[in-house]
């Protein structure tokens, strides 16, 4: 007997994004779905499972509906709802082709309170539901629409009942009243959570403190009484939901309406992928395209361009069709501060100017020379790994305060020699690592006044937050002032302010393969294509070898060659090896049926691994394996920064042909 195809709240959310996605979802052995594990990973990394469990503890005596299939859950729910007063967790409500599982449902006579629990952060002092110009804030709209859909189904199931709706979310305005809250909830499997309540802790009061319950009736009515905007819309919720439910029940593809939203499509396969690509099928259906039409890129690939929808509305779909007027007015000549946004976008469209013989890439040697002249040796390359869990670690912390649990540190001397000089990792369950992290970083960097490099402003943000934590901590460590002074030297405005290599890449380097992007994972493979020096150095097994480049995690008698040179002379991507490390840090249940993880999962691999080490019961061997993978993972990120700088050092001295 086939599983009923109901429009659930997750399917409704998907359809609001794009109704055609209903045809692709759930077919993981047929279509690539990069989000198939992402909800699970986000819930794990952010502590979403713990939030859901804490919300239930706010209602002692509540009853969990544990039916694993639709019919059993529906039958259990129906039986309990015969009572006049009851609190249910995950009750199943079905009306026609609609099926929902409500996080918390409170029945009091003929009154229902529907509560949707989200790991979304909320500030009760500065409510964030309404935008500055009125209406529902775009960041909150999906959550309100989710709650509105459930309210709409519940009203159909109980037409004579009085129904109110609330969202329950971690409240950033509140402080944890006790230590170790995150350790009270341990995951044991994909969605199971075991609760360990210390003696004397009132969990109901704790939940009421940390989780804000926000009545959203007014906003729900807005959604129910106004049209929903979606690709192919707008339409009322009634009409849209009915059409979507019918199409999903019959497994019919809703005619695709392409737009800027396609840029984030999770049903997009990569070259060489054995699975079908829903994204490509949609564009082929909507535009009459064939596979070759995608080769030169679409307007969706334009970096940091806000006018994509406008171009698509004008039937400008290929990047080659974009004109200078579409980009907007800009100067042809580079300015002293490097490439601006529009110049980078035009390089994507028009390619490298014919009068610039840079070997297929653009590099502002003058700007690079000026920037590098300010650098002081030895050069220090650092990369942080952090987490922002919903439930605080320590008394006095807010939900979603950042935790810095790891860094890697490479050094380059004036003679060009490189070594992996240091690292830090603190993953002991329940331990707040930020002050230890700052001390270790201080020990690593205070021996000289060499320039310190980061990739993007993330490191700046984290260090600034640690200063705040030190300042407000009623139990400040004895070295708080020394740590604060050290950090102030490193952050923006300090006399040793960290150099952002991402900004330098944005202003001075462009290669078509990056699609205008500037992440280290985009820049490094492009640099490898144009840098003979990097290919020569890292295609040899010198990393971690005796008398080679010192490594703290990859030491081997034979060394490691990070780059393989293919038959056509191209270099492999070192991040292909990083992907294997990411797989080792992701739980098996988050991998697809082939045992792979998506690019999204890889990007959050460290935070996910940290969450596992905090919240998951596991044996010593598994913990050690994950810790080893974390150390190697972070080391490669700082090595990648070293590689880019090594290439730039040579490129800035190369004369144009």
Please characterize this protein's 3D structure.
- Strands 1-2-5-6-7-10 form a six-stranded mixed beta sheet.
- It is globular.
- The protein folds into four domains: 39-228, no CATH class; 260-352, no CATH class; 369-500, no CATH class; 510-651, no CATH class.
- A hairpin with a 5-residue loop joins strand 13 (403-412) and strand 14.
- It starts with 8 loop residues before the first helix and ends in a 6-residue tail after the last helix.
- The protein is an alpha/beta fold and 657 residues long.
- Residues 590-595 and 597-601 have low confidence and may be disordered.
- Helix 3 packs across helix 23 (605-615) and helix 16 (458-472) packs antiparallel against helix 17.
- The protein has 24 helices and 17 strands.
Write the layout of secondary structure elements.
Blueprint: H1 9-17, H2 21-24, H3 38-46, H4 48-57, E1 63-64, H5 70-80, E2 85-89, E3 92-95, E4 98-101, E5 104-108, E6 111-117, H6 141-157, E7 162-170, E8 185-187, E9 193-195, H7 203-210, E10 211-215, H8 217-225, H9 237-249, H10 278-287, H11 308-313, H12 324-327, H13 341-350, E11 362-363, H14 365-373, E12 379-387, E13 403-412, E14 418-425, H15 434-445, E15 452-454, H16 458-472, H17 480-490, E16 499-500, H18 501-508, E17 509-510, H19 520-530, H20 532-538, H21 575-585, H22 599-603, H23 605-615, H24 620-651
Helix pairs in contact: 1-6, 3-23, 4-7, 6-8, 15-17, 16-17, 19-24, 21-24
């Amino acid at each position: 007997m086939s599983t009923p195809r109901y429009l659930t709240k997750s399917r409704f959310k998907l359809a609001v994004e794009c109704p055609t996605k209903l045809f692709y979802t759930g077919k993981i052995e047929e279509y690539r779905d990069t989000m198939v594990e992402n909800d699970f990973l986000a819930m794990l990394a952010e502590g979403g499972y713990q939030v859901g469990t804490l919300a239930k503890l706010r209602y002692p005596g509540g009853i969990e509906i544990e039916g694993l299939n639709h019919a059993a859950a529906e039958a259990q729910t129906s039986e309990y709802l015969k009572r006049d007063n009851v609190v249910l967790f995950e009750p199943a409500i079905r009306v026609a082709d609609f099926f929902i599982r409500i996080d918390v449902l409170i029945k009091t006579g003929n009154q229902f309170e529907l509560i949707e629990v989200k790991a979304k952060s909320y500030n009760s002092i500065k409510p964030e539901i309404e935008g500055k110009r009125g209406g529902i804030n775009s960041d909150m709209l999906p959550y309100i629409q989710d709650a509105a859909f459930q309210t709409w189904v519940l009203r159909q199931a109980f037409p004579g009942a009085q129904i109110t709706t609330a969202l329950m979310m971690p409240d950033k305005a509140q402080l944890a009243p006790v230590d170790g809250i995150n350790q009270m909830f341990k995951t044991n499997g994909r969605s199971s959570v075991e609760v360990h309540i210390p003696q004397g802790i009132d969990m109901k009061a704790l939940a009421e403190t940390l989780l804000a319950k926000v009545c959203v009736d007014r906003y729900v009515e807005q959604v129910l009484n106004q049209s929903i905007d979606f690709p192919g819309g707008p339409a009322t919720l009634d009409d849209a939901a009915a059409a979507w439910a019918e199409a999903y029940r019959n497994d019919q593809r809703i005619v695709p309406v392409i737009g800027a939203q396609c840029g984030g499509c999770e049903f997009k396969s990569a070259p060489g992928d054995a699975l079908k690509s829903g994204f490509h099928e949609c564009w082929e259906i909507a535009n009459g395209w064939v596979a070759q039409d995608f080769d030169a890129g679409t307007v969706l690939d334009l970096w940091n361009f806000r006018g994509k929808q406008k171009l698509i509305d004008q039937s400008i779909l290929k990047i080659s069709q974009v004109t200078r007027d579409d980009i907007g007015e800009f100067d042809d000549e580079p300015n002293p501060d490097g490439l601006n946004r529009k110049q980078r976008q035009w390089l994507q469209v028009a390619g490298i100017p014919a009068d610039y013989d840079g070997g297929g890439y653009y590099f502002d040697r003058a700007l690079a020379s000026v920037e590098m002249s300010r650098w002081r040796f030895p050069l220090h390359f650092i990369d942080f790994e952090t987490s922002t869990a919903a439930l605080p670690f320590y008394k006095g912390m807010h939900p979603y305060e950042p935790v810095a649990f790891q860094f890697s540190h490479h050094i380059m001397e004036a003679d060009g020699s490189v070594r992996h000089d240091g690292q830090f990792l603190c993953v002991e369950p329940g331990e707040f690592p930020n002050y230890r992290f700052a001390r270790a970083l201080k020990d690593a960097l205070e021996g000289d006044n060499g320039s310190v490099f980061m990739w993007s402003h993330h490191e700046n943000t984290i260090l600034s937050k640690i200063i705040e934590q030190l300042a407000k901590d009623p139990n400040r460590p004895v070295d708080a002032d020394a740590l604060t002074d050290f950090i102030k030297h490193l952050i923006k405005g300090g006399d040793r302010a960290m150099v952002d290599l991402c900004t330098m890449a944005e202003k001075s380097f462009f290669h078509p393969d990056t699609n205008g992007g500037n992440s280290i994972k985009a820049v490094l493979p492009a640099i490898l294509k144009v840098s003979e020096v990097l290919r020569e150095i890292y295609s040899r097994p010198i990393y971690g070898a005796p008398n080679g480049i010192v490594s703290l995690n990859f030491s081997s008698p034979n060394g490691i060659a990070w780059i393989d040179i293919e038959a056509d002379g191209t270099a492999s991507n070192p991040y292909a090896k990083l992907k294997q490390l990411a797989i080792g840090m992701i739980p098996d249940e988050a991998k697809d049926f082939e045992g792979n993880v998506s690019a999204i999962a890889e990007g959050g691999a460290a935070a996910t691994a940290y969450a596992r080490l905090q919240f998951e019961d596991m044996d010593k061997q598994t913990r050690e394996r994950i810790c080893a993978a974390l150390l190697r993972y972070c080391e490669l990120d700082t090595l990648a920064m070293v590689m880019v700088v090594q290439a730039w050092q040579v490129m800035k001295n190369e004369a144009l042909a």
